[in-house]
Amino acid sequence: MNDLIIKGTRKFSGIEIPVVLGGFGENKKCLADKTIAEIHNQPVFEIRRRIGDNIKRFTQNVDFIDLKQRMGESHTSDFLLNLGYAKQSITQAEHIYILSERGYARLIKIMDTDLAWEIHDKLMDEYFEMREERDKGISINRTQLSPELQMFMQMGEAMAKQELEQKRQAEEQKRQAIELNEVKENQKTIALALDPNGDRNFRPWVNRSLSAIAESENYQYIGSREERYRAVRTESYERLSAKRPCRLNQRVINERDRAMEAGASQEKIKAINKISIIESDKDLKPVYESVIREMLVFYCVEVK
After folding, report:
1. Phi/psi zone of residue 302: left (φ > 0), alpha (ψ -120 to 50 degrees), beta?
2. What is the pairing mode between strands 64-66 and 97-99?
3. For 39, how many CA atoms within 13 A lie in the half-sphere containing its CB?
4. Sequence-separated (6 or more) residues with CB below 8 Å from residue 36
């Protein structure tokens, strides 16, 4: 993979944006999520949310690079600081995305507003297109060429356009085939996740589901097996709290205190945890079940 470098800035829509090269190929231009947010006048977290919610539509190292996964490399932090990221935002961010031209186009397709497309078209012309030669005034006046050479140039351009169109159609057919297969797989996963007759022995089902997500290639988390399992379970509790604020940590502490005052054994006190709190709450339990089902669908995981 080519190293990312900053090669000056460029004026775009009244703001100076950094020109970032590399990452996706030598001298290939790309965009940081912070720059995209500034161009579209949106918060950075909203751009990241759009990408994260639709991460299956993006291909890593082709459409995006997550620099948060490369923080172990010595130059990454300096690179982000030079791009204008604050130290605190770098530390607190879960993801920091760099998008290729194709990745940016996919993001615009997800945003799908007239303004987003208008900015996209302008950015294609003024940033991604290699216009250095035109900026220098180097161009060919065809009227000064012989009729024969003009004819050859026209024929060459026509053949080039035809070849590019054939390639585009082939890529589009391939993309449609992949999307159709993904739709079929998602429908199968949704059907299994929402099956009312499925195994709903609560704890075994929850543990089996979260383990399957942690082991899935669709769950993009860098870390040990134990860390992946812990991260998946933490995500499930966060999703639950977003749906139904429940202060699980405090409820565990309170329940353990009550058990201790009642003279319960250490084994019973230790057995009181978040999942036991959820399981014993008739209102919270079905909400958590819906969270697990949503996660199975989101990560396209099938639990047998």
Report:
1. beta
2. antiparallel
3. 27
4. 47, 99, 104, 107
pTM for the whole structure: 0.44
Quick: pLDDT tens for 130-148: 444 444 444 556 667 777 7
30/83 Cα distance (integer angstroms)? 12
Task: Give the Cα separation of 214 and 236 in Å (integer).
Answer: 12
Which residue stretches of the chain have pLDDT < 70?
1-2, 129-143, 181-200, 304
Are the CB atoms for 251 and 277 separated by under 8 Å? yes
Which pLDDT belongs to residue 62?
92
226 burial type by CB count under 10 A (0-12 exposed, 13-18 middle, 19+ buried): exposed
Query: What DSSP letter does each residue of the chain carry, written as one string?
Result: -PPPEEEEEEEETTEEEEEEE-SSSTT-EEEEHHHHHHHTT--HHHHHHHHHHTGGGS-BTTTEEEGGGGTTSHHHHHHHHHTT--HHHHHH-S--EEE-HHHHHHHHHHH--HHHHHHHHHHIIIIIS--HHHHTT----GGGS-HHHHHHHHHHHHHHHHHHHHHHHHHHHHHHHHHHHHHHHHHHHHHHHT-TTS---HHHHHHHHHHHHHHSTTS---S-HHHHHHHHHHHHHHHHHHHS---HHHHHHHHHHHHHHTT--HHHHHT--HHHHHHH-TTHHHHHHHHHHHHHHHTT----
Dihedral, 257, 263, 268, 272 alpha carbons, nearest 10: -10
pLDDT value, residue 15: 86
Residue pair 262/215 in contact by the 8 Å Cβ criterion? no
Give the pLDDT score at 131.
Answer: 46
Nearest to 67 by CA among 43, 51, 46: 51
